[in-house]
Amino acid sequence: MTDQRIAALDGLRGAAITYVMLGHFGPNWLHSAGTFGVIVFFALSGRLMADVLFIGNMGWREFAVRRLARLYPALIFFSFFLLVLSLILGRADLLADWWSYPVFAVNLVVVLTGRFPPFDHLWSVSLEVQTYVMLVLFAVGLSGRRRLVALVAGATFCFINGLVRTYVIHQNPFAIYWRPDVGAAVVFAAAFLRLLLKDVHVPAWTIPTAFSAANLLMLLTTEPWVSMTLNGVLLAFVGATVERSTSPTVRLLKFGPLVFLGTISYSLYIWQQLFMYAHKGGLPLLAALTLSLLIATFSYYRIERPGKNAMLILWQRRRVGAP
Question: Which ranges of the chain have pLDDT less than 50?
Answer without folding.
Answer: 1-2
